[in-house]
Amino acid sequence: MTKSLTIGQQIQYYIVYGFCFLLSLLPFWILYGIADFVYLFIRYVFKYRYKVINQNLLESFPKKSAKERTKIKNGFYHFFCDYVVETVKLFSISKKALRRRMTFEGIDEIKKEMYSLDKNFCFVYLGHYGNWEWIASLPYWVPDDILCGQIYHPLASKAMDKMFLNLRNDFGGKSIAMKETLREIIKLKRKKQKTIIGFISDQSPKPNSIHHWVNFLNQETPVFTGTEKIGKQVDALIYTAHVTRVKRGYYHCAFKPMTSNPKDHEDFTLTDKYMQFLEGMIKENPAIWLWSHKRWKHTRQKIEAIQKDIKK
Length: 312
Prior knowledge:
Low-confidence stretches: none
Helix content: 40-55%
Strand order of the largest sheet: 1-9-8-2-5-3-4
Number of strands: 9
Radius of gyration: 20 Å
Shape: globular
Distance between the termini: 35 Å
Structural class: alpha/beta
Number of domains: 1
Strand content: 15-25%
Order of helices and strands: HHHHHEHEEHEHEEEHEEHH
């Protein structure tokens, strides 16, 4: 839950919110025109996180030519600008318009399995792939008897954090701060509330939260394991989300089952399986993954040294 804002933060909130709302009233074709214009600045003038993106692509696709990596990089910059204006559009887009542009598949199967197996939870592995903000519109597709939730990492700016929380909650779902995940899920379990919860699982954990490493995109990568760990505690169904960008401004999310009995799987095997799944999606269309994120800022050697010092 976002704490109360100071007067200065409230002013910042209303200024940014008002600007974004007014901008969102523009039709998509104008917003995409703005995105194309902004692309030229962040790609060639400001060079937004240029070194990070170059390094991530080089390490992830060492066998690709420089020309191929440049094509992916340019595609990412174009997509990122689209992602920004598409997120701004959420301030005023109608339910009907968003349902037409962000579609889902597999919801009936999830509901059937939840009721037939008497499961209270379905956990869905998600990544920063496609427009992840639009995926928060899942409540528009889910029956009223099932709650939709999403785990989020609070933003450093309290004003921006409040704005994004309000934006996501407008869909009718429940936003759960990462630190409060287990506590909130236990509360839902006690209420016997059937809930689908999305876990963004491709972020870089903090050093003291790293317990497992995988080979992901040709690199040794620390990963979050909370999805399967909590899933085992509450006996949740585990699904993945296969996201595709149908065309500009249109996305499709197909839910794919992983397991109905997470306790039957050895520790970390579900996490490993998801990261392989995500890597496959990225290779299908690499431009729509978040390459500007410092995903590999932690190395195993450095983390093990830090953890060793903590134990002393």
